[in-house]
Design brief:
Elements: E1 4-5, H1 7-15, H2 20-28, E2 32-35, E3 41-47, E4 53-60, E5 65-71
Parallel strand pairs: 1-5
Antiparallel strand pairs: 2-3, 3-4, 4-5
């Protein structure tokens, strides 16, 4: 499935200086995924080039829209 960025996700990508390749890598080769109570799929990936911090990407599986993404400090302990 191809994914599209929501307007918010586009802004976040730019503001937080998240490299698009990291985003693609997180979705295609996630270290783990979870289903959220919100019905979205949450993808997690440790990004070596960003000091091993975990990128958390939230995708609406029905529409294929990336809702948001951020480096999740709490996710380190969940891996």
């Amino acid at each position: 499935m191809k994914f599209k960025l929501s307007t918010h996700a586009q802004d976040v990508l730019r503001e937080r200086k998240i490299i698009e390749e990291w985003l693609q890598r997180t979705i295609s080769h996630a270290d783990w995924t979870t289903g959220g109570n919100d019905g979205n799929t949450h993808y997690y990936k440790s990004i070596a080039e960003h000091d091993g911090r975990v990128l958390h990407v939230v995708v609406n599986p029905t529409t294929g829209i990336i809702v948001t993404m951020f480096f999740d400090r709490r996710a380190r302990s969940r891996k």
